[in-house]
């Protein structure tokens, strides 16, 4: 075929959409403004660059909705998941990756695909002709955001997403810290020791909270308001909500035993997760922040074990833009006012690497089906992908719409068979049903042509 699918944005969603459409036999032009036009959060011009955490979160496909989403993406031959698996790092039951190797691999595979053309430069207007997917993510350029607002007649919503700092491993004091995954989770010793833990006494914790609250913070620009996504709150915002909030969140001490002093229970624990394959970099788990750089260095060095820490990257904060999708998108992820344009990824109001990539996967398949003249419905709402699409295209209340991670609360209720009423049984019932429905969708809704595709 000669008609091409154009995709704007080479992040998680755009990369996955390009791969899925090309694997179905549709020529793709992937537009990415980086590195010609940068953002404050990105460092490279590579596709699928991970700018926040290096974790895809839980890989448990029986008890966790995120793990189920992993399963669905693998079943669909997803580029993001297969590449993540090749560059995975020990993370105690989560799927974490070497971020630089991961994005470099995604970039190489997309550029090597015979049906994918990559083009640099910024696109500033909504295209009026052709088939397009806009997957520009939370940092959509100002010009394109203005064009979207002009078309939709509605103000884009925004919240602030914060980035956690990264520490050089050699600067962590291992005479104070120890290696252990919470509850010793993992099948191998490497998995069971995937995290570095820094313990705090009550006095140290109280001093840390005082410093957090008093620290200099990033100022907002005029007209901006702090609409944070609750799954990614800056730690100082959590501390301001209550002095014990962090101790029941990212600093909870449960499931951990101090290898240096097993008889003493820590009042709070700061965890660090490996950020690269060499094990030279660790990110501070859950420590997204909007503190100014000088304040970050001072406050984080109050953490026992990090008193001499050197930082490869300090935390930051950026404006996150997304559509009011329930009013703007149809179930096929098309802009109702211009159905030749689809949206995918975080700009649609999903939150997280995995959710963004999954929406790219679906958008790429649906766009390819349309170009190939095939009638392919969205995934069933009993699946993780289908539940997310249903949420952003109609289930969510438009007047209070906020970004959402995948969770079992988005799924149609299920009556567990055989008296399976406990939470574990109920979650397993959700995942069993979803896997059956998704497999059926893949089998009967395939868009791949007979001679298309290369193995993922």
TrEMBL record:
GO terms for cellular component: cytosol. The gene is trmFO. GO terms for molecular function: flavin adenine dinucleotide binding; tRNA (uracil(54)-C5)-methyltransferase activity, 5,10-methylenetetrahydrofolate-dependent. Catalyzes the folate-dependent formation of 5-methyl-uridine at position 54 (M-5-U54) in all tRNAs. It is found in: Cytoplasm. It catalyses: uridine(54) in tRNA + (6R)-5,10-methylene-5,6,7,8-tetrahydrofolate + NADH + H(+) = 5-methyluridine(54) in tRNA + (6S)-5,6,7,8-tetrahydrofolate + NAD(+); uridine(54) in tRNA + (6R)-5,10-methylene-5,6,7,8-tetrahydrofolate + NADPH + H(+) = 5-methyluridine(54) in tRNA + (6S)-5,6,7,8-tetrahydrofolate + NADP(+). Keywords: Cytoplasm, FAD, Flavoprotein, Methyltransferase, NAD, NADP, Transferase, tRNA processing. This is Methylenetetrahydrofolate--tRNA-(uracil-5-)-methyltransferase TrmFO. One of its GO terms (biological process) is tRNA wobble uridine modification. Its cofactor is FAD.
């Amino acid at each position: 075929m000669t008609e091409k699918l154009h995709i704007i944005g080479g992040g998680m969603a755009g990369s996955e959409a390009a791969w899925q459409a090309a694997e179905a036999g549709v020529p793709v032009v992937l537009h990415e403004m980086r590195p010609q036009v940068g953002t404050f959060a990105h460092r490279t011009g590579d596709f699928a660059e991970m700018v926040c955490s290096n974790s895809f979160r839980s890989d448990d496909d029986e008890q966790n909705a995120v793990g189920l989403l992993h399963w669905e993406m693998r079943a669909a031959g997803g580029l993001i998941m297969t590449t993540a698996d090749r560059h995975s790092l020990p993370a105690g039951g989560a799927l974490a990756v070497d971020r630089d190797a991961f994005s470099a691999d995604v970039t190489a595979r997309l550029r090597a695909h015979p049906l994918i053309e990559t083009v640099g430069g910024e696109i500033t207007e909504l295209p009026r002709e052709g088939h397009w997917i806009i997957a520009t993510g939370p940092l959509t350029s100002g010009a394109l955001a203005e064009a979207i607002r002009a078309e939709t007649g509605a103000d884009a919503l925004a919240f602030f997403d914060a980035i956690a700092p990264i520490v050089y491993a050699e600067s962590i004091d291992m005479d104070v810290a120890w290696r252990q995954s919470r509850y010793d989770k993992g099948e191998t010793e490497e998995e069971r020791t995937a995290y570095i833990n820094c313990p705090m006494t009550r006095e140290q914790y109280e001093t840390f909270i005082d410093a957090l609250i008093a620290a200099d913070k990033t100022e907002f620009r005029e007209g901006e308001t702090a609409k944070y996504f609750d799954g990614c709150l800056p730690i100082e915002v959590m501390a301001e909500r209550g002095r014990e909030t962090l101790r029941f969140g990212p600093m909870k001490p449960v499931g951990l035993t101090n290898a240096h002093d097993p008889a003493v229970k820590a009042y709070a624990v700061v965890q660090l997760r490996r950020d690269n394959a060499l094990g030279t970099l660790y990110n501070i788990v859950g420590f997204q922040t909007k503190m100014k750089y000088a304040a970050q260095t001072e406050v984080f060095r109050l953490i026992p074990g990090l008193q001499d820490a050197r930082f490869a990257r300090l935390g930051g904060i950026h404006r996150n833009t997304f559509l009011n999708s329930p009013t703007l998108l149809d179930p096929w992820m098309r802009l109702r006012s211009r159905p030749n344009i689809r949206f995918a990824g975080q700009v649609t109001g999903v939150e997280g690497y995995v959710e963004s990539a999954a929406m790219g996967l679906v958008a790429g398949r649906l766009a390819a089906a349309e170009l190939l003249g095939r009638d392919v419905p969205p995934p069933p709402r009993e699946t993780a992908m289908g539940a997310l699409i249903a949420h952003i295209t109609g289930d969510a209340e438009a007047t209070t719409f906020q970004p959402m991670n995948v969770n079992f609360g988005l799924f149609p209720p299920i009556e567990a068979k055989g008296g399976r009423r406990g939470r574990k049984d109920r979650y397993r019932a959700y995942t069993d049903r979803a896997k059956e429905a998704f497999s059926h969708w893949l089998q009967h809704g395939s868009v791949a042509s007979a001679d298309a595709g290369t193995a993922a």
